[in-house]
Amino acid sequence: MSQRVLYVIACGAPPAREVGRLVSLAQGRGWNVCVLTTPSGRRFADVAGLERLTGHPVRSEYKDPGEPDVLPTPDAVIVAPATVNTVNKWAAGICDTLALGILVEAIGKGLPLVALPFSNRAHAAHPAFAENVAKLRSWGVRVLFGPDVYPLHDPGTGSSYLHLFPWAKTIEAIEHGIRDGEGDADPARPADGRQARQ
Ligand SMILES: Cc1cc2nc3c(=O)[nH]c(=O)nc-3n(C[C@H](O)[C@H](O)[C@H](O)COP(=O)(O)O)c2cc1C
User: Fold this and answer.
1) Which of the listed residues 38, 42, 60, 85 should we mutate to test ligand 1's pocket, taking the one with most ligand atoms within 8 A of CB?
2) Are 7 and 36 in contact (CB under 8 A)?
3) Pair type for strands 32-37 and 76-82
4) Measured in angstroms, how far is the CA atom of residue 189 from the centroid of ligand 1?
C-alpha cells in the first residue's frame, strides 16, 4: 500500500522555525510528509533542513504555467502555525499564495483539514478572526484554537512560548478526521496521483 501524503503548511509566525518537529511526528506515524510555506513562513523555516528531512522540495510559490508538478497529491493537510492573516484570507476564499490556493481547493475536495493558529491575544482578538475560525469550523476544518489548546501570549512575546505549541494535537486531529471518514469522496483527485494545477 502506498504511503498516505500529508501536506504541512507553515505560515509566517515563530513556530514555523520548529515545523520539523511536526514532520518527524507525522513520519513516525507512517505519513509521507511534504512541507509548504507561505512566502512569509519561508523566512522563518529551515528550508534546507526540511528538504533533507522530507525528501521533497519546500514549495512556497505557484509553479510557472507549463511546469511539471513536483509534489504528490495530498490525502490530508495541516496548517501549523496558521497566522491570523492566512486564517482570514482562507475563510474569504482568497488564493494569492500557493498555500491558500491549496487550502481553498482542499475545502472543495473535502480533504481532512486541521489548522493550529499561533497568535498573541491582541491580534487574535480582532472580531474577524473569531468569525473566520467559526466559518472554517462550519465547513469541516478542525481549527485547534481556544484555552483548552494553549494559552494566548502577550504581543511581542511569542518566541518565548514555542515550547507550548501543541504540534502533536494536529496529528491526533487529522487522524481523528480520517477515522470519521473525511476525505473519502474526492471527485477532484486526479487518477495519476499528482497534485493538479498548482
Ligand atoms: C517576527 C514576526 C512574528 C510574527 N508572529 C506572528 C504570529 O505569531 N501570529 C500571526 O498571526 N502573525 C505573526 N506575524 C505576522 C505575519 O507574519 C504577517 O501577518 C504575514 O503577512 C503573514 O503572512 P502569511 O499568512 O502568508 O504567512 C509575525 C511577523 C513577524 C515579522
Assistant:
1) 85
2) yes
3) unpaired
4) 32
> Which tens digits make up the pLDDT trace of 81-117?
999 999 999 999 999 999 999 999 999 999 999 999 9
Rounded distance from Cα 57 to ligand 1 centre (Å): 23
Atom of ligand 1 nearest to the CA of 83: 11
Query: Is the Cβ atom of 15 under 6 angstroms away from ligand 1?
Result: no
- Model pTM above 0.90: yes
Q: Which residue has the cell 470519521?
A: 180
Q: Is the CB of 41 under 6 A from ligand 1?
A: yes
**pLDDT value of residue 198:** 62
pLDDT of residue 69 exceeding 60, the answer is yes
Full DSSP string of 168-184:
HHHHHHHHHHHHTTTTS
CATH homologous superfamily of 5-179 equals Flavin prenyltransferase-like (3.40.50.1950)
* pLDDT in the model for residue 191: 36
